[in-house]
Amino acid sequence: MPVSDLLRRLGGAALLTSLATFSNLALAHNPICECKQIEGGQIQCIGGFSDGSGAPGVTLDVIGYDESILVPGKLGEDSKLTFKRPDAEFYVLFDAGPGHVVEIDQADIEAP
User: Fold this and answer.
1) Structural domain spans, the chain
2) What confidence tens digit (pLDDT) does each residue in 55-88 have?
3) d(Cα 105, Cα 92) in Å, to the nearest integer?
4) How far apart are CA 102 and CA 2, in angstroms?
């Protein structure tokens, strides 16, 4: 095979690889999590992604300001988790993997 043919094939492979990488970037989605206080001293959090998909099974922990895990959890099949509001100061950590993390401080959780 002549070198020019080999370079053309490698160039085509590089182009296809670049296009595949670009399409993966174009399909990237951002994590979204919202928490609100509901009746009975409970807090309900809903997680998902900017493309409209849910996040069942994704880790959602309630963490104290001392970094202790107050309520370990995972989102249910409906992408929700409900828990009793802790007495200690806390924040909610929605962790769908590297680059897909959302933190919500207790001060940002809306009252009913």
Assistant:
1) 31-108
2) 999 999 999 999 999 999 999 999 999 999 999 9
3) 6
4) 53
Under the banding of pLDDT at 50, 70 and 90, the label for residue 27 is low
59-64 and 69-71 strand pairing: antiparallel
Q: What is the gyration radius of the CA atoms in the chain, in angstroms?
A: 21
Residue 30 CB coordination number (10 Å): 12
The CATH number of the domain covering residues in 31-108: 2.60.40
Tokens of residue 66, six digits? 């001392």
Q: How far apart are CA 58 and CA 35, in angstroms?
A: 15
Q: pTM for this structure?
A: 0.73
- How many other CB atoms are there within 10 angstroms of residue 75's CB atom? 22
In sequence order, the β-bridge partners of residue 105 are: 91
The torsion defined by the Cα of 71, 73, 75 and 80, in degrees rounded to 10, comes to -20
